[in-house]
Amino acid sequence: MLTGLIGTGGAVLVAGIALIISKFRGHLPGRNSDQIVLTIAVVLMVLGGTLATYIGIGQWVVSVLRSITGLFGPAGPVILVLLGFAVLLTVAVAVFRTATDRALWVAFALPLVCAAINKGIFYDINAHLHPAANQVELMLRTKLGA
User: Fold this and answer.
1) d(CA 60, CA 141)
2) How far is Cα 106 from Cα 27, in angstroms, rounded to an integer?
């Protein structure tokens, strides 16, 4: 049962490492090191969210998002696209400007929202993130011996 929900655990592994390095970023020496580490954690959370999209619980979240947009009728897809752009802009600002703890959690939701929309630029984002996320998961499993 649990294996069907979390799959191989790659999403949990990548997101967990992102959370751990974000919590201990203040212990590093240097002026801007905590911003750099938090930016890396945001990128890892995006990759963790991408891996979560293709497991049981991620597919459930995507179907719930699609069901909720169906409740709004014709305006539902428009609301979902606006939500997608807000999430995308938050993550882009976190990666290219100033990363925050809130952006860390929003970054995990970006691939889930992209999978729910599954059209246009959001489809491209989702299609390009999946191979990168698989490579990071494989690298982490190899390095950590998991």
Assistant:
1) 25
2) 24
Name the more confident of 26 and 82.
82
What's the chain's length in residues?
A: 146
Structure-block tokens of residue 60: 């459930």
Question: What value does the mean pLDDT take over residues 71-89?
Answer: 90
CA separation for the pair 21, 33 (Å, rounded): 12
Residue 14: CB atoms within 10 Å: 25
pLDDT surpasses 70 at 2: no
pTM of the model as a whole: 0.84
Q: Is 78 exposed, middle or buried (0-12, 13-18, 19+ CB in 10 A)?
A: exposed
Per-residue pLDDT tens over the stretch 30-48 = 777 888 889 999 999 999 8
Distance CA 2, CA 135 (A): 24
Report the chain's terminal Cα–Cα distance, integer Å.
21
Cα separation, 125 vs 111, in Å, equals 8
Cβ-contact 14, 48 below 8 angstroms: yes
Beta strands in 11-123 (DSSP E): none
